[in-house]
From TrEMBL:
Record-level Gene Ontology MF annotations: metallopeptidase activity
Feature: compositional bias, Basic and acidic residues: 259-268
Protein name per Swiss-Prot or TrEMBL: DUF3152 domain-containing protein
Source organism of the structure: Micromonospora costi
Signal peptide start and end residues: 1-31
Pfam families referenced in this protein's UniProt entry, alphabetically: DUF3152
Keywords, ordered alphabetically: Signal
DUF3152 domain mapped to chain residues: 67-234
Renumbered residue ranges of the record's region Disordered: 34-73, 249-268
Amino acid sequence: MRPKSTSRARAAAVRALPLAALLLTAPTACGEPAAGQPPFAPPVRFAESSTPAAPLRSTRPAPTPVTYPADGGNRWQVAAAEPGRGRGGGHVLRYRVAVERDIAGLPVAGFAADITRILSDPRGWTAAGTLGFRRVGPGQSADFTIYLATPGTRDELCQDVPDGYTSCRNGDRVVLNVARWVRGVPRYGASLATYRTYMVNHEVGHRLGHGHERCPGRGRPAPVMQQQTLGLHGCTANALPYLDGDRYTGPSGAYDDPIPPREGARRR
């Protein structure tokens, strides 16, 4: 049986915490473990998009190469609202999905469908039954926005130590670096799809108030709030907040891992 770092009793205690407290605490900058709450970045410029959400299908055409510049223009396309009422019970958080317009080969509808699938996973943040997510569209009120940004725009939105490599959470902005979405990280030990799931759950976890955690023991799964982008420290890759029905955590804290160098544009 796989050991867990929390008991069901502790998981129940975590679920009993006031949701407002979870939404207002936690370090946000995944590229700088010691950073506190960074200031908000300048306003973003959205482009209205009426493209309907793409349904998930069992067969898809051959993928188009994803290309992007090192520095984008900080202009965005916003995905349409998801059909239905979202997933999860209790307090429902509304989120918006935006893709920077300089990113080619990755339609906003397809990216939004991936985000919604990850946040709807029964092993994700809704597993406790006290929280739900619903994707809203352009012009609708949102509790937070998930951005897929070029490395340079990532630095503008995060307002932390600029590294162009990591992703971050800055206030109500969950910023995913397109370089990591497309390339992943070396020595992760799992598929790119697993890493993408980790990216989303880790940064959304910061929006929910969770701070960084460390590996609970060699050979065990890494907590989703561990900075797995920078190193696993003896743990194995894990993208999910809940394992075997329990909230899976590790000791609070972060490692002093170096951040790899900024990458350039990806071209055809």
